[in-house]
Predict the structure.
Amino acid sequence: MWRKLPHRAWLPRVSWRQDLCFFSSVPPQPVPPQPVPPLAHTLQGYLKALEPLLPPEELSHTRRMVQEFSRRGGLGQKLQEGLEKRARHTKNWIADWWVQWAYLESRQPLPVHWNPAISLPRRDYNDWRSQLLFASKLIAAVLDFKAIVKSGQLPGEYMRGKPLCKELYPLLFSSCRIPGPKHDYIAHYGRSRRSPTHITVVRNYQFFQLEVYNSDGSRMTEGQIHSQLLRIRSQSWKTDKEPMGILTSEHRHTWGEAYNRLLKDKLNQDSVRAIETGLFNLCLDSPVMRISDEKYASRKAAQVLHGGGTYSNSGNRWFDKTLQFVVGEDGSWGILYEQATAEGPPIATLLHHILEYCEKPEPKRAPLVPLPTPKKLYFNIGREIKWDIEQAKMNLDILINDLDVNVFNFRRFGKDLLKAHKLSPNSFIQVALQLAYYRVHNELCPTCDIVSQRMFKGGRTDVIRSPTNQSLRFILAFDDPSVTREAKLELFREAVEAYSSLTNAALKGHGIDRHMLGLKLQAIHEGLSIPKIFMDTAYGLATHWKLRTGQMPANTDSVMCFGPLVPDGYAVCYNPQADHVHFSITAFNCCEETHAETLANTLKDALCELQELLQPAV
């Protein structure tokens, strides 16, 4: 039931990207182990990635450090041999280290900093009755997906002709992150002898344990689920004064201490365990405050991401839970997930199944059997817990008020135009983002775009570093009136191609960042001092991700949203469709240099100018 993962250090939250992923009914081929990249390849790539970011004298210093680290018989070679040995004796040489290091040892709050949200197109309703009808359909769809996963009938997934690992799918359900004083744990309850048969429904800050299987083991029908949701609504018409879910939004150390205090009481312990063991959470939210149509998309995404604040729907969340489906009374809906167990591609597959299922009629009628009353989860709230809640409310509102969210739909063109010009849509957008950032800040910055490693057994993600010498040369030439259009177009194609080459290398398991991390953690594992190459100021600069990006390709007009990795940075996510692209951009208001709307407007202009470069007016 409990799975404790190994040792670490710290790293920023990541997301994902998924290129050319499709399903096949053909039996899946075996997935190979993730390779340890050659040491020379990684160090050469690291230096190359620093070239557009560092002045020559700093780069020369770093080159000397890299040469010392990589010399024959030196520390780098020793650590490389250690990683290769680890790869021979583990399922995946980096995945467990990565989860522990990047997620479980981070002490930052989960909302904004870690848990990504996906906001989907608004449903065509605006009342609580339709809200419950759609929520019933959604629950039935997720249970149907779970049954497919459990039966082993999930179609094989392929990316660029290679089969993808499906190990994360069973872990989506009945999973929860558990806070600890120094690091967190992941609890998977779905593999226990008596697998959970309930979900948790939250409305007006009140939690309910809802059984979704009948006594004979059959899944409840939509009609049965709907009648139970009506019961829950009738029992939760008034907002609870104490939003227990707010506690899960705290700094992880603070929440860990409050968690231990909370669980000293038997009633609290039973209620918390019911939430943690449930298949997933359903959050029935009040309407998103609507100021204008233009800002509604941003507010809708923010609502899924953090709940809108302690006077809105933030009390309807349990941020530690792996899966939380948010259904608003105004037709807004989406999913919020915790990344230690879940990642974007499996979530996208789940959402695709939900959308397809929702188009189908009710498959069967509800049997005429009495249903148990949904169990309301109660908490004993003493003086200490009440104080913990008040502090958490204050801290979450500060965090939410500090986050600037800008969601927009770029309608001038989409991926079809780019493919017609034989350009990778993702590579095109990455170069456009570099151009937009440079125009706002007059420099390139460390930028990470996350690439999937699911083509390897147990694989998670790696990073593609977007700034290249080719993109810098193009950016400097693009705004220079003395450079001809033909020269600019040639430089642009070189920049796009350079990014595509980095993507190809990463998809072969030859990305540089997870390998660098592995070398560092291998030194710690062997009881050695952290190598000087990782103490270099250049390494600190190179991993201060001021621009964090993620592609979320989907078959619907959805958009992913998450917070920046660093206080003076941005987070940008995009979903390219055939003739338009959805974007979300976030920044922190506390930083005077960053502004989400400014970057958004600059990006729109850059995209339009790049279209004109490809298709000059006659």
